[in-house]
Amino acid sequence: MLIVKDEGTVYIAASTAAVLYCGYMDQASCLLPENLQVWKVPNDDGIVACAAGSGFEGDVFRYDGKLIEGELTKEKLVLETVPKLRRVLGRYGKLDKDGDMQVRCAFAQKDRVFVISTGFCVSEITDCAAYGRNAGRGTSALRIAKEMKPEERILFARRITHENERSPLAFIDTATLTPRIVGVEASGKEETE
Amino acid sequence: MSVIIGCVRDGKVFLATDSQRTWGNVVTHAETAFGANVLRMPEGVLVGVACNQAVKRGIAAHPDWFSDLKGEPLTKRHVMERIVPELNRETEELGEIDECAKEQGRSLYNGTILLAQGDRLFCIDGDFSVQRVADYCLIGHGSEYAVPRMRGFYRKELSDGETVTLLGEALSDAAVYSSQSSAPFKLYDTATNETANIGG
Fold it and tell me: B132 to chain A: which residues are within 8 Å by CB?
């Protein structure tokens, strides 16, 4: 998961690669809107979300308009959203013996973005952040690419952290509120579909 | 656990599967609808079940999971909000949840399921996540041996007949290497109520 704040808008990107536990799915399926790990929370409050690293956690919440409503604040996430995450994920056996979940979630609205860690800590991101494999490298890459446009910056960081991965990224931002796919050609040039 | 291949075509979905039933070192072949890998449910839904027999019977006992579609198309939302909670409960009651994985927060049931209706195909993976399938999906023990045939030769431009031939060949590939998959192979499609033999 890669997050960038730029001129009052938050951009979040996640991988589109999906692997089944016991099976195989064609790669075009990974790009279907309902399978992306980013989505707009289904209410009128302009909140976007990302649950990167697992399909289930995104699936179980993507249709819940009451997961987070109104103005996005850390207090609301801590007092309302985190308990709901714990309750629902616990019901499905998705909390480990320490009570931690297996993914990180991000919620963004206008120019604010918060990340909920696997241990349910809520942190506000002030500039940029990378999570997942090679996260340190990714965060540093986002920082040094500060002069680039947000999507270019994220794709630059992606190239640094996932040198051999060719699957496109799913993007969403707090201005358009619409998921979109951004691919990487073999030449290393970026193109938008 | 058998191999099932779901393939989305123009206006319909094919589900192709082998017919082997495996109990330890005993192997039979399902000749009746009761033992089949693909269940016919209300609202034109086909359910391809790559699980053990207990889970399969648990699903077969619940046509109500689908009858409340009431003429509406099957959607990922319906699957997540109506079917997955019931499947989770059913597999818990049957003791089919992997307890070691559950301790790590990765609750898994022992299987994978395909749901098909009209031209829509969904996969409920072992961790209860749901993927909508654009072109094709292979599930079950031995499915990895069938992947090269599908990935290498399947194209949307193939005719239905060519696609059915390819599905039979892919199942044959799986049967070569998998001890849990063997001919005869069966083809179901969401457009008709018929079941066809497709080689092997």
Answer: 29, 32, 34-35
pLDDT tens, residue by residue, B72-119? 999 999 999 999 999 999 998 888 888 888 888 888 888 899 999 999
Please report how many Cα atoms fall inside a 13 Å half-sphere around the Cα of residue A125, on the Cβ side: 31
Domains of chain B: total:
1
* ipTM metric: 0.84
Flag if B129 and A59 touch (Cβ within 8 Å).
yes
Please list every residue in chain B whose beta carbon sits closer than 8 Å to the beta carbon of residue A18: 131
Among A12, A4, A69, A16, which residue's Cα sits nearest to residue A183? A16
Asked whether the beta carbons of A168 and A158 are under 8 A apart, the reply is no
Average pLDDT for runs of 10 along chain A of length 193:
96 89 88 93 96 87 94 97 95 93 95 97 96 90 94 92 83 96 54 37
User: Which CATH number fits the domain that encloses residue B95?
Assistant: 3.60.20.10
Question: Closest partner residue to B106 among A35, A63, A102, by Cβ?
Answer: A102
Task: For chain A, say whether B16 makes contact (Cβ under 8 Å).
Answer: no
Residue B166 structural domain? 4-197
In this complex, do A94 and B151 lie within 8 Å of one another by their Cβ atoms? Answer: no
Tokens of B47: 């359910």
Among B77, B105, B136, beta carbon nearest to A102: B105
Domain ranges for chain A = 2-192
Class of domain A2-192: alpha beta
Closest Cα in chain B, distance from residue A173 (Å)? 23
Strand-by-strand arrangement of the B38-41 sheet: B38-41, B45-51, B111-117, B120-124, B130-132
A34/B76 touch (CB, cutoff 8 Å), yes or no: yes
Please, is A95 exposed, middle or buried when counting C-beta atoms within 10 Å of its C-beta (0-12, 13-18, 19+)? buried
What dihedral do alpha carbons B117, B121, B125, B131 form, nearest 10°? -130
